[in-house]
Amino acid sequence: MSRTPHPELDLHAVFDHSPSLVLVLDPGFKIAAQNRAHAAATLSAERGLVGKNLFEAFPENPDHNEAEGLSLLRASLLRVLKSKEADTIEGMRHDVRGLRGPYQTRWWRVINTPILGDDGYVRWIINRAEDITELVELRTAAAKAFPKKLTAHPCHSRESGNPLRSCRQTGMFSMKVTIYHNPLCGTSRGALAIIRGKGIEPTIIEYLKTPLNPAELRALIHKMKVPVKDVVRWKQTAEVAAAGISETSDDDTLLAAMAAHPILMNRPIVVTDKGAKLCRPEETVVGLL
Could you give the residue numbers annotated as active site? Predict the structure, then answer.
């Protein structure tokens, strides 16, 4: 069967009139095309977004203090560029606003799909969105009406305020994930964004605020199945000198140093049902999910 389009088929018209919400992005995340449905759903029809950077065209709502939609989206797009495979964000909040008026709350399911050039590299990315705001609002209302029945359900997480995060992939089950996190570290923030992009709200341990003792560190590193010295952040030269340690120090000395100077523990460390790893680069976390 031939896949060649009919000679009278207007592919531009098909794209523009598709009911799906679609953007086409270049590898630098500049908007190359936006169809009518996407422009209508995002209240951006009057803004002429073609040619603009995606993240400038759709800024975060400044009044939403915990906004992370763009972080999730950026992490997803970077995974597409690296893996050359489609990537899905099961649920993310990103509010929209027209030329006038306030921001309106919106929740989205997003699929980013690469189109490869003849050289094998990503030439375009198809960004397809689905407005799932009504579903999220229904789940939130149900959780408030029946808290005892739904708060433990894997499709709702009251603690995170995101009724989708703890639904992994299909929303039918959840995975227990713990991240030892430094919010000032870009790699740690990136790993956290990848986890949340998979619909999982992890347990976050900010180890600089609540340092691990030597026994806890030993147990964690045992799960990682790596030498203790591999978990030390040796580039923290001032703390390394203050602790008086080197790569030839014994395990007890290194564990005591990390307990006394928690900045010496490398990050982020992620623990799931599949194991425990130091997730550098941040994409390493995908293998644990």
Answer: 185
